[in-house]
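Hello,

Our lab assistant flagged a job as stuck in the queue for most of the afternoon. It eventually completed. Since we weren't sure the result was trustworthy after the delay, we are filing this so someone can double-check. Below is the sequence as submitted and the structure that was eventually returned. Let us know if re-running is recommended.
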Amino acid sequence: MRTLVLLLLVLPVAALAQPERDESGIAATFADLVALAHADSVDAAVPLIACPADTPSGQHAAVPCTPEHAASRARVEEQLIRLRHLFPVETTALTPHYAVEQEGDMGFHLLLFHDLPAAPFVLVAFTDVDGYHLFTQADTEEPIADLPPPPSVVAALEHLMAQAGDPMTTAEAFTPLIVARDGGERAWQEPADPARPDERRAAEQILTRLRALLQESSGGYHAVGYESERESEGTWHVLHVRFGGQEEGERLSFAFLPIGQDFLLGDIDG
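-- returned structure --
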């Protein structure tokens, strides 16, 4: 089964025992979650969605997402956007097949939907953490294209551009918007430090580049795509941005990394 390949979370042995069947409870929780998705109630949906967390032994575990962390909030926003797309109607009108599956040391509650308007096959998975059913993923056979990006990532881009476009923004003020990339213990873990010459110089180069782009495009830019990918540094949130008109102007990819409560710029490609 493709479930475990496409689920985001890998759980340790102690995180999940064989789940007891609870079809009505899973259906009710999922109906609540879809309703929250259509109401765009991110804060209310946060505790219903599982986020990855590392244990002291280095294993991965599932915990309820928390709104204080940028990574958690972006994951919740992504999942709500996906649920709105896949389930444009109330789930009470649908009759999925329910199953409990144990694969190795991992267990899941599964809801299998057929012939939805947005996809012929959707597999919804929940896991149990501390007695609660937590949503992990709504899985489809084919990738879903052109979903809008999480609002918190868009806000990070807008803040970055506003600072770059402000002539009063100094290199010292701009530097903490960039993630440290010095190769030491701080790399990909902390904001860049303006007191460190190399980090300040790298931020100054980015600031100069963005100011030139904004000037050439008369301040116009718009997102034309989004993707996220979990790597060793964390989950990268990449916004593809075009400067200028719809079909002209330079296209760049801005890669943001969630650090604490903020999204910091990690790289610009293109």
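-- support follow-up --
The delay was a queue issue, not a problem with the job. The result is valid. The chain has two domains: 3-140, 151-269. The chain is about 30% helix and 30% strand.
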